[in-house]
Amino acid sequence: MKTMRSSGVSEASLLSEDRVVQTVWRLALPTMAASIVQTANSFLDRIFVGQLGAEALAAAGVGSQLLFLTMALAMAVSTGATAIVARMVGANDPHSLRAAARQSLGIAIVLGVMFTAAGYLLLPQIVRWYGLETRADMLARQFLLLALLGAPASFIMMGLSGVFRGLGDTRSPMYASIASTVVHIVGDYLLIFGKFGFPKLGIQGAGIAMALSLWTGASMLWLQQWFSTRRELAIPALPIREWWYRILRIGLPASARTFIYTTSSVMFTGILAATAAGTAAVAALPIGLTAESIAFMPGFAFAIAASALVGQALGAKRERLAERFGWAAAWQSCAVMTTMAGVFYVFAEQFAGLFTTDPQVKALAVAYLRINALTEPLLAFGMTLAGALQGAGDSLKAMMATFLTQWVVRLPLAYLLAFGVGWDVYGAWWAMALSSGFSGILMIALFKRGGWKRVKV
Asked: For residue 59, which phi and psi values (nearest 5 degrees)?
């Protein structure tokens, strides 16, 4: 069979029956590294902006939430591109591969421009909706006026990342992420504080640094594609209706999963606020989520690996191998996330102490970490197998499973255990843990049923 190559990774080398575990790890590791870099980026960004005062920190927080929405929408293109490109690589269909990649890039550009235009038109209403104090409101607008210039780049970066991952190349997105992070942090330092002769721009400097970092990442990914053996994939095509449907039919449910998580988190926070602990419970939640976000890194990385490998194997009509890739990724994710959960369980008090000295908040954060650590292995299966389903093009099932977990199980159970049974905040923590375990069991059942093997992309 003719081998298809991109950035030195061949389809034949990926679809080896003898190296399933090694292949999964090789694809997951760069994504884990990129996630660590992005976490460091967020941490340093908060430190720099925080030195401008509480109003600036609130303004940047609001702006970051809106830019996160951009990422969630751009994920639709990325997920669709990964599933279709991976399928075409496995099928050794260079014509359809070229069309999928170029259409993905074209759609990403169009959506990026449309979102940016809508963002500028609606900016005053969006910021006003948050009800910030006068100065924080002004700073949020100043930040977003400049940061929104990077929104098109966000779509382009996600679209190109999806293509690279479908080709089995997770290193190129990692390099772009590292470059983007370096520009962001250096830009923050130079432009917020006016170092080395640069103007001191405060929150506006943070907005410029954000936009520059996104364009750096997008440009680097595009250049990596342009100077590879597949230069033609870097040329965007005018989007046509057929490809809008094919890409977004897979991608929109993936974006909807993020929306489901976000809205259910808001409701869950409301339940915490109504408990006897109230503010202390709400304060303990982000401490627990910060710890879990570290554990999520391997889960997300293995989900990306499973997505690409399952798609390629299905394209090659090797369903048994696709199933092996899915399970191998899930078990590796489970091993890593379980290890991290064990660390957080044992050292929960020390970790919580890094973030708060308030005894009540600390005690609730410790309880969060130890209760949720118990179902971390099942959460690993849920995250990774959802990625496998999306790689197969069966993203609608993954979305419905997320809705069922978050809105049908977690929220009613949290209310019941917190107020009906009388467990207060601890009931909410148990609801989180049990619903995470439920998500893992549900995804295992869906993957075992095998309907994803028959999905057409």
From this structure: -65, -45
Amino acid making up residue 227: F
How far is it, in rounded angstroms, from Cα 71 to Cα 260? Answer: 15
CA atoms within 13 A on the CB side of 107: 31
The number of distinct structural domains making up the chain is: 2
Separation of alpha carbons 447 and 122, rounded Å: 41
The full DSSP string for 97-126 is: HHHHHHHHHHHHHHHHHHHHHHHHHHHHHH
List all residues 6 or more positions away from 161 whose beta carbon is below 8 Å from its beta carbon.
Answer: 78, 173, 176, 221
Q: What is the pTM of this model?
A: 0.87
Report whether 333 contacts 378 (CB < 8 A).
no
Q: Is residue 246 part of a domain?
A: no
Same domain, 208 and 331: no
Average pLDDT on 252-266 reads 87
9 - beta bridge partners? Answer: 6
For residues 17 and 331, what is the distance between their CA atoms, to the nearest angstrom? 17
Residue 93, helix vs strand vs coil: coil
pLDDT tens profile 330-347: 999 999 999 999 998 999
Q: Is residue 129 predicted with pLDDT exceeding 50? A: yes
Output DSSP code: residue 417: I
Neighbours of 204 (CB within 10 A): 18
Structure confidence at residue 13 (pLDDT): 59
Q: What is the CATH number of the domain that holds 158?
A: 1.10.357
In which band, very low, low, confident or very high, does the pLDDT at 11 lie, cut at 50, 70 and 90? very low
